[in-house]
Design a protein that fits this description.
The structure holds 2 protein chains of 2 kinds. Chain A contains 5 helices and 5 strands. Chain A is of the alpha/beta class. By secondary structure, chain B is α+β, with helices and mostly antiparallel strands. In chain B, about 45% of the residues lie in helices and about 10% in strands. Classes of the chains: A alpha/beta, B alpha+beta.
Chain lengths: ~140, ~180
């Protein structure tokens, strides 16, 4: 049986802390194509050119939070799926109350769990809209 | 009489929540970097050296230990319901019987911050949300933390003024009062 999961996804990674962003991007780049930025506003500018399948973003950022970024991004790219990475374990209900349309990964994340979340989001993207797989 | 013990504990709670967040970011970066290196060397001679693998495993287990330590500092909190008082620009109880999901002592902290600003607090009710403007001095990290954490606790969000970054607008969802809920004094 042929898998519906593309061999590699395009993942836009956003975190306003450079150390966190570097590690997140390095882990995801082991299996997918990535672009990274510390700026939520720049992330919105990148969307059109990069056409990501998945937006992997920190929750708490200075310019705008991850949920607002995801909402703005989905308005421009409806098939885009979100993975929110957060250290705010106390506020899961806060995040869930604002949006259920994403996967939440808690920091400190297990890298395998993060990669699994990205793949799951990619599968949802495939179901939302047919997309072109990126050749390895 | 105001309970300073409860107020101080709440402030400490909010500061610890901020510290937990920062430490989790650091631990994540360390764990992620170690995983990346482990994957990169797994097909090389380095992976055959037992001490290399044991050191990578040690990083992973220590990161998990950090998270366990952080989890122990978290205090359970029960979400309650308070009304933003009319005396501070809140909607009248008659027209707007709903409140925000904060504990009374948390509301007191927000009102303290609101009272420190030069301009009056602007409160607007729209789309089932209460919008509150708070101004904090640029060097007050604790005040910024309190604003952000309380917004998150109330399931709301914080918008920073792009022109004046010390000016925040809190957007707090209004929720219906549960039976027997507390009222702001």
């Amino acid at each position: 049986m042929r898998s519906v999961l593309p061999p590699e996804l395009r993942v836009l990674v956003v975190d306003d802390e450079r150390g966190s962003l570097a590690a997140l991007t390095a882990v995801i780049s082991l299996e997918h194509q990535t672009m990274a930025t510390v700026s939520a506003k720049e992330a919105l500018d990148i969307l059109g050119k990069f056409q990501p399948h998945v937006l992997c973003t920190d929750f708490s950022m200075s310019e705008m939070d991850g949920l607002d970024l995801l909402a703005h991004a989905k308005a421009r790219l409806p098939s885009l799926q979100g993975v929110i990475v957060t250290g705010y374990h106390d506020y899961l209900d806060t995040i869930r109350s604002r949006s259920r349309d994403m996967i939440v990964v808690f920091k400190p994340y297990q890298p395998k769990a993060l990669l699994s979340a990205i793949s799951s989001a990619g599968q949802m993207c495939t179901l939302a809209s047919p997309m072109k797989a990126v050749a390895r | 009489m105001k309970s300073f013990g409860e107020r101080d504990r709440t402030l400490l709670d909010l500061a610890l929540a901020d510290l937990r967040h920062d430490l989790r970011n650091k631990a994540s970066a360390i764990g992620g970097a170690a995983y990346f290196l482990a994957r990169k060397i797994r097909d090389t001679d380095l992976a055959l050296q037992p001490r290399v693998q044991s050191m990578l495993d040690l990083i992973g287990s220590e990161v998990e230990a950090i998270e366990q330590l952080l989890a122990q500092t978290a205090r359970p909190r029960s979400v309650t319901h308070v009304r933003w008082p009319e005396s501070h620009g809140g909607p009248s109880e008659e027209h707007e019987p709903r409140g925000v999901a904060l504990e009374p002592v948390e509301l007191e902290l927000l009102l303290e911050l609101a009272a420190q600003q030069v301009e009056p607090v602007v409160v607007r009710v729209a789309d089932d949300k209460l919008r509150i403007r708070i101004h904090v001095r640029s060097d007050e990290r604790l005040a910024r933390t309190v604003v952000r954490k309380l917004a998150e606790r109330a399931r709301g969000s914080v918008e920073t003024d792009p022109v004046e970054p010390t000016q925040f607008e809190l957007v707090l969802p209004l929720i219906a009062a549960p039976a027997g809920s507390s009222k702001a004094s």
